[in-house]
Specification:
Number of helices: 2
Largest sheet: 6 strands, mixed
Shape: globular
Strand order of the largest sheet: 8-7-2-1-11-12
Bound molecules: calcium ion
Structural class: mainly beta
Helix content: under 10%
Number of strands: 12
Distance between the termini: 54 Å
Radius of gyration: 17 Å
Length: 239
């Protein structure tokens, strides 16, 4: 098969031409060829879209998704940088629910409806998440400074194809946290990817924090009308 045909076939396999439907509609020409070539070399199969199809990390569910804002077009500024931005204010909030500090250096966040091979964020060397600590990754912008227990990051993939930040589609997506070996630590599907319902104008959060199922943030116990709580519990208390 000619290279152009091979790329087209792979693009179709990845569903890259059919993603979006909201503000993150993309052009198939933005597929990261380097990432695809690397994936082909190491034999990583295209994602089958089945939650349990991938091997699990020894850290499976020791760090979990606790809150996700896929709709960056809310009436508030999630990352606190003074600008409400559909891409930059999206976020995922991860919490270490194990008993000890976990080194998350080289771990990645991946969304799977566009390009499973292209991490939206890779945690830098020497990144340690303490027990009960949170790590919040925003789509971009200028997040708050990290503290001893809450780490804040803008998504950092250094590639033109990552212009959509975390690329959390409003109508549905499947996101994964992978360890340094690429093994699944936690995953979350919402909206048209199955799993929990997608929400507009507010985040999806566990109620109660850490242990409960996901619900729209304003409906979580203690929210008091808050539409999200990146880096804190629903009621604003620290983890
Ligand atoms: Ca979005
Ligand atoms: Ca902002
Ligand atoms: Ca996506
Ligand atoms: Ca929260």
């Amino acid at each position: 098969m000619k290279r152009s045909g091979w790329l087209l076939a792979l693009a179709m396999l990845l569903g890259t031409g059919a993603c979006g439907g909201d503000d993150e509609a993309v052009d198939a020409g933005q597929i990261d060829a380097g990432a695809i070539d690397a994936a082909a070399v190491d034999g990583t199969p295209p994602d089958a879209g089945e939650p349990d199809a991938e091997p699990l990390s020894p850290y499976y569910h020791q760090i979990i998704f606790n809150e996700v804002l896929s709709d960056g077009t809310t009436d508030e500024d999630a990352n606190g940088d003074g600008t409400i931005d559909a891409v930059e204010d999206e976020f995922v909030e991860l919490v270490n629910i194990s008993a000890g500090t976990i080194d998350i250096s080289g771990w990645t966040l991946v969304e799977t409806d566009w390009n499973v091979f292209l991490p939206r964020h890779t945690f830098a060397p020497s990144t340690q998440l303490v027990a009960a600590g949170a790590a919040v990754v925003f789509g971009g912008g200028d997040p708050p400074a990290s503290t001893a227990t809450v780490l804040y990051f803008p998504s950092n993939a250094q590639d033109p194809g990552t212009q959509y930040g975390l690329d959390l589609d409003n109508d549905g997506d499947r996101i994964m946290l992978r360890d340094g070996d690429g093994l699944v630590v936690d995953e979350l599907s919402y909206g048209n990817e199955g799993g929990i319902s997608a929400t507009d104008d507010e985040s999806m959060t566990r109620d109660p924090d850490l242990t409960g199922g996901f619900t729209p943030h304003t409906q979580a116990s203690g929210a008091a009308g808050a539409i999200f709580s990146p880096g804190t519990r629903v009621d604003g208390a620290p983890f």
